[in-house]
Amino acid sequence: MQGACVSISCVCICVSVLLHSAISQPPTESDTYTECTDGYHWDLQTEHCKDINECDTIPDACKGGMKCFNHYGGYLCLPRSASVIPAPEPAITPTESNPCPLGYEAQDDSCVDINECERDEHDCQPSQQCINTLGAFTCQCPDGYRKVATECIDIDECRYRYCQHRCVNVPGSFSCQCEPGFQLAGNNRSCIDVNECEMGAPCSQRCYNTYGTFLCRCDQGYELDADGLTCKDINECGFSSFLCQFQCVNEPGKFSCVCPEGYQLQGTRLCQDINECETGEHQCTEAQTCVNIHGRYQCVEENRCQEPYVQVSENRCVCPVSKPACRDLPFSIVHRYMSITSERSVPSDVFQIQATSVSPGAYNTFRIRSGDENGDFYIRQINNISAMLVLARAVSGPREYTLDLEMVSVNPLNSYQSNYQTSSALRLSIYVGPYTF
């Protein structure tokens, strides 16, 4: 060893290797993972542990004029006068009972190999396999194990990263496992994506496969629930009150607008009044006239003149001056019908009144003669021959008004007559619908 000094003049060291020990000791198993003890290295050619010559590999292995002597597993530093005399190998002489070398036996006139494995004349461990060789035998470890001295040690394959995801070492082998959303490929090491959508993913509507997982999506009109799998209906009607003009009806995956009786849907959200008088969906008799109003219709008699008035045309009644009762009544009454929506904004023009014939020099005034006890309307005179009926406040329906709008004409040119003031009335029937459309 380095630094050891022996003061002798002559030292003889006999290194003896017994042949019997070399043959009975099974050679080290050929294994890529075999480790050698200190002072030896693995020889790929012979597949055995080979002694390292430290005298050649270590520069200046011995100091102080000492001489380096290599031996098995190490080296010695001795005086230069020392010498190493190897002991001669003992000759293998056949015995009288067995004239053949060790590991052989005589058969007839020749020596044949002894199969120590079949005769159970080996020292292999129970977990090892005995393999017969010429003149000897060897002990081999099972797959997944490596031989260290006389023992078989499990090989941890997981440290070599054989698996793509997870590796589980087991005695003599290993197994690969994949993360959720993946499965083992045919080589039992790689992991490939699993298409959960084709394998029955629990999406209630649409399924989209992604790398290692999947996503659930919903059809239009639905939204994904908190579990990420179930689709629940979206109540569109609860989002806004302006989706429909009248009423919104929620349906699975959608919504629809409905209109009240007497109206029909125009487009997808607006309601339009049905003109029952034009469509023939009324029950007026031949002696009646159908008048369409918002959401319904009205049947009125063709002769709407009451005493002392007499009918002179379809919608005009005249009070003859020959009748005494006509002296305090308007000369003529014209019947009109109109329909307005509920809660109409204020002010809003409702109806325009215009004189059809005016005497030269006559001065005309307009007023509401009757039917507006609550003051819901007022007259706005535009000029001498026309005026406008205006809502004074918002009105709500359903409701009906019968207003007598009177035009009083004063003509000073006819002052020679005892009565130079005349009046005409317009009987206006107003139907206020129950809705704002």
Question: What attributes characterize this protein structure?
Answer:
three-stranded antiparallel sheet, 35 strands, Laminin, 3% helix, 41% strand, 437 residues, signal, mainly beta
Write the layout of secondary structure elements.
Elements: E1 12-13, H1 19-24, E2 40-43, E3 48-51, H2 54-57, E4 66-71, E5 74-79, E6 83-84, E7 104-107, E8 110-113, E9 129-133, E10 136-140, E11 145-148, E12 151-154, E13 166-170, E14 173-177, E15 182-184, E16 191-193, E17 206-210, E18 213-217, E19 222-224, E20 231-233, E21 247-251, E22 254-258, E23 263-266, E24 270-273, H3 276-279, E25 288-293, E26 296-301, E27 310-313, E28 316-318, E29 332-340, E30 349-354, E31 363-370, E32 377-381, E33 386-391, E34 399-410, E35 421-432
Parallel strand pairs: 1-6, 29-35
Antiparallel strand pairs: 2-3, 4-5, 7-8, 9-10, 11-12, 13-14, 15-16, 17-18, 19-20, 21-22, 23-24, 25-26, 27-28, 28-29, 30-33, 31-34, 32-33, 34-35
Signal peptide: 1-24
InterPro entries: cEGF, EGF, EGF-like_Ca-bd_dom, EGF-type_Asp/Asn_hydroxyl_site, EGF_Ca-bd_CS, Fibulin_C, Growth_fac_rcpt_cys_sf, Nephronectin_domain
GO molecular function, one term: calcium ion binding
